[in-house]
Amino acid sequence: MFEFAADQLPEDLDQYEFVDRVDKVIRKGYVPPIHDFTITDAAGSDYTEDFLVGDDYVFMLVSYDLTKTNEEVQGTINTFVKQCDENKVRFFGLTSTAPSETDQIRHKYQSMFSYYFCDATTIKTIVRSNPGLVLMKNGTVLDMWHYNDWPEFAEVQDKYLKNK
Predict the structure, then answer these.
(1) Cα–Cα distance between 74 and 87 in angstroms, integer?
(2) Mean pLDDT, range 99-114, rounded to an integer
């Protein structure tokens, strides 16, 4: 029996018969700091795959603590969400703030989108901004913005959503 690495296959393969493939770990790969990323609702139901799997664009407002969020950007967020709704682009919030406080703050700012919940450390790893905006597609982050650099919807539409 002969064993060949993928980059060492002989040119005359037709004289050999394939028997089996053996995978060997040569060097362990990078293990990301976020292992158990989950998005849950207030009742604890897992929605992670609902937001990370699929060919649709998804905006995620990230705010590790809604009680400390920048209030000046809230009107801009609401305008952006309205434009997302008009263009049928999903938008949701992700926070570690307690659900009862989240509801109060959501009503205070008249936020017309749902908030889901995640660990504060994980949220801070995503964006070091309170709030920040993340654009994803099929679980891949396409872009992210600090609240100081909040994009115009038309700008994002031209860059990413034009083929939607």
Answers:
(1) 20
(2) 94
